[in-house]
Each structure stands twice: as structure tokens, then as C-alpha cells.
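[Automated response] Your request has been received and processed.

Submitted sequence:
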Amino acid sequence: MKTIKIYNIPSYIEKIILGFSFLVVALGSFSDNFGISELLENILIIVGFGLLLLYQSRVWWFKDYVEWNKKQIYLKLGTGKGIKLKFSYLHSCVLQKEFLLLKLKNGETISISIKEYDRKQVQELQLLLMENIIDKL
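Generated structure:
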């Protein structure tokens, strides 16, 4: 059985990382006014963009990965690419024997194969989805 890594990453963490990265890149880019050496300018720019790259690349680190906060969820289960959905767009979530069905408010249905995952973790994922869908109704 495969395991699903579920992470709750609050939206303020993302804002802090993006803000800090922007600040470091801006400091490196506009440091002529501060008297910083050219080598330090380049290092600051590289560190800022490197931090952004590292944070955004987290979705490629794991194969079976779920990341969520109070507004949205990112699901990457068994496929090469993930699905990012806002909870306000979801209408319901149905757990079947081999599939997790996500029904959107526009009538579309997203089917995710779950037969190779631990049933308890899939139930936790469904509970997480249902709690957040109910909050957004």
C-alpha cells in the first residue's frame, strides 16, 4: 500500500516566504544606493530566486502528496501532475471502493484512483475534503 503525505501549510507561510524572497531580490537589485559590493548584490539575488525555486519545487519532491490550507487543496496522487482546487469550487466528495469522486459546482466530476493507497489515509483525505467543502457552502 502506498502512503499519502498530507500537509497543512497556512497561507501566511507562503506570504512570508514570497515577501522575504522579494525583499532579498529587491535589496540585491537596487543596492547601488546602499553601497553594497557587486558580489554581495549577485549573492542576494541568487538567494532570493533560489528560495522561491526551492519553495515552488516542493510539489515534485513527493509522488503522492496533498497540500492544503483553509482556501484550497493541491492533490498529486499517482499522476505526473497535480490538481489545485479551491474549496469554494467543490460541491461534494464521494468515496467509492476504487475512486474518490470530486464533484465541482459547475457539474464537472474529477475521478481519482485510490485503489493502491491505504484506506485509512484515503478516509482522512475525504474527511478533510468534506469538512472544508461544508465550511464553504
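Summary generated for your ticket: Residues 11-29 form the longest helix (19 residues). Strands lie at 5-8, 65-68, 72-76, 83-86, 90-95, 99-104, 109-113.
If you did not submit this request, please reply to this message.
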